[in-house]
TrEMBL record:
InterPro entries per record: Lcp-like, MPAB/Lcp_cat_dom
Domain of life: Bacteria
Protein name: ER-bound oxygenase mpaB/mpaB'/Rubber oxygenase catalytic domain-containing protein
PANTHER family: ER-BOUND OXYGENASE MPAB_MPAB'_RUBBER OXYGENASE CATALYTIC DOMAIN-CONTAINING PROTEIN, SECRETED PROTEIN-RELATED
ER-bound oxygenase mpaB/mpaB'/Rubber oxygenase catalytic domain sequence ranges: 249-393
Amino acid sequence: MHPLPPRTFTDSRLDAMQFEADPLADATVAKIFGPWASAAEGATEQQWQRIAAVNECFAQWTDNASLQAWAPDTIAGDADLAMALRQYVRLAQVLPGWAEPLKIERAERVFMEHGALSCILLFCASLPECYVLPDLSAVLHAAGQLEAHTEYRIRSTAAMIFPVMMQGGLTRPEGAGLAQILKVRLIHATIRHLILRGTPQDKVREWRAGGALPSTGLVAALPLPAHRKPTMYEVLQARGWDLSADALPCNQEELAYTLLTFHYVFLRGLRRLGIGLSAADEEAYLHAWNVVGHVLGIQPELMAHSMEQAETLFDQMQMRGRADPVTPDPRPSLGAALMNTMAQSLPWQVIRPWPVLLTRFLCGRTTARDLQLQAHASWLSRFGFWTVMGLARIIDTVVRCVSPQFSITRSITRVLGYHFMSRVLLSQTRPLQLPDALLNQVDGVVHSWSDDPHAPGWLNQLEDRLTTDGTWSHGLGKRTAAQASRQTP
């Protein structure tokens, strides 16, 4: 049985979803923090210590099997805290009754078959579209100071996507997708709790009982430490928040929109590159990520089960977001930081504008304008990009008359994506924040993407030369001796 199909919501209905959060995760985080002595002064040292203790627990959630057996007696010497976290893990890891394992397996194959292209679409389409909603961008900016730590944000995103989409990530004990999702869900709740300095449900209740908010907002800003660089948590609790103007941070509408960027925008990108999937494959991919959305605490009525439903909901949410600007606008700086990170991973100056050009192609003019991606590219860069894209589309159209699975477009973007992953995602000096055994699996999977199973031998040989040449390679799929010594048997 599937969840209720989405419909075109009225603005009042979506407005209400902006004041809905995640009761299970929020209640768990409330137990972690305990009562706030004074919201006007911020968290106490004891509260920071309890957060640190829970972060240490995350390291024990290495795979899905570890969740089933995880039952600490105390955390930071607190039996009640341990009980609350145990209950969260027990309830949150359960897949919905409408989950279909065969569709999830099919979605895993789709992601893996497209290899490095999957990552290019995520970072040249999904993440840019994620930045379009001003309120969501403001939270992302505060949560990660993204302009300064863009690579960290990219690697954090990949640290969830890879375990989820690898074989058995959602359905097998040896998979690790559920373990990573449960961490992300608690992080979302922690962001809400720190920004509001209390539980979202309590703050909404106080606001509605008290009537109009003062001009300073429901939660006043706090000064940041002057003698040292503040932590991410300190930045979040100090930023201030106006519930009447901005609704809840990380609310249900924003979470549902983010989910759309991971499945709908990915599939839309394949279509725009001329590598569209069958309707059954698209439905399976949407389904798998809807299962992810359920585990993340997203309400089922906000999930799309077809590309048509997804397009309608996505366009409506974007239109609403654009109608509610934030000052100062955080989106251009986030977009510039992401594009610069992509560009710096490419070895030749002439193709460094290509991530911007590809993002503009995949996301469209309106999103490019939101993120101010109209930066000038040399005529040679633009000529090269559009010539390659045009010739690839022509060649694909002709050759597919004989070989339906052929795609030189996929091969070109695979080369760029393969190099990007080696530079940013799988750097030996900055590995993904994953358990060693899982990181080794990710390395192996990405290394297997060096060949396209649907491409002819000569094209794979050309790709191999581009991705193994000293100029391009950064040791993808190979671990340092120090890392290898930490491999889990």
